[in-house]
Specification:
By secondary structure, this protein is α+β, with helices and mostly antiparallel strands. It has ten helices and five strands. The protein has a five-stranded mixed sheet with strand order 2-4-3-1-5, with helices on both faces.
Length: about 240
């Protein structure tokens, strides 16, 4: 019991740098707690969960080794953390981009930059509905991605630039079977079709029963999980619109 009390006392001394525990320390702990909470929300259900558990185990071992003055073990773990930090940035680049994108969506600037009036939005919706119906009636498939706050420029650059006004007829012609642009996704920004035949990511850990669907639905689930985009899918097999 005395050892536990001494460990808590040492931890508080490290936290407060030897100063009395005040309101600024409480605020410090709250900020870290909120940060950790949102990190856990972001990585929930992803491949990062297992890695986080491993990192927490290593951190625990590091603190124990530091407390017991195990110099060699402490130095080894410090070197490992330096290498692991770079590796984490490389391996989890998609998750980091998604997290930073979600942070950017919280600010008031995001609302100021959001394009389009209500009339324009209604016109876009009407064209999309008509396009989906035309494509479904023609028994073709379609994957249409509507850009919102999260930019989709990286994805649009993988396809063929269109830069045309959004109309139901243009969308329907793009997804005709004989069209060279029918494979891949169409990315829409405002009332403009940015590009067609775009490649979207396919995450292995996309859940919600994605293995039961085709490539278009899996790509739709993946892009909607990574961004705030609205995705319209027309099934070529069943003509269902989702």
């Amino acid at each position: 019991m005395e050892a536990l009390q001494r460990w808590i006392s040492d931890f508080l001394n490290i936290l407060t740098r030897g100063q009395p525990f005040g309101w600024n320390n409480v605020l410090d702990v709250l900020i870290v707690a909120v940060f950790v909470y949102y990190v856990l929300l972001l990585i929930r259900g992803t491949r990062a969960v297992q890695l986080l558990i491993g990192v927490m185990v290593l951190v625990l071992i590091y603190f124990v080794a530091s407390y017991l003055h195990l110099t060699l073990t402490t130095l080894l773990l410090q070197a490992l953390f330096a290498v692991a930090l770079i590796a984490l940035v490389v391996v989890f680049q998609p998750e980091l981009r998604r997290a930073l994108g979600q942070i950017g969506q919280l600010g008031p600037l995001n609302r100021l930059l959001a394009p389009g009036s209500e009339e324009e939005l209604e016109g876009i919706v009407d064209e999309l509905v008509r396009a989906a119906l035309l494509i479904s009636e023609a028994k073709h498939g379609a994957l249409i991605v509507l850009e919102r706050a999260t930019g989709l420029q990286d994805y649009s650059e993988t396809g063929v630039p269109v830069n045309g006004k959004l109309t139901a007829e243009l969308l329907a012609s793009i997804f005709m079977t004989r069209s060279p642009l029918h494979d891949g996704a169409v990315i829409v920004r405002g009332g403009q079709i940015l590009a067609a035949a775009c490649l979207l990511p396919l995450e292995e850990n996309t859940d919600r029963g994605a293995h039961r669907y085709g490539m278009r639905h899996r790509a739709a689930l993946s892009i909607s999980a990574q961004t705030d985009a609205i995705v319209v899918v027309v099934s070529e097999e069943t003509q269902a619109i989702s």
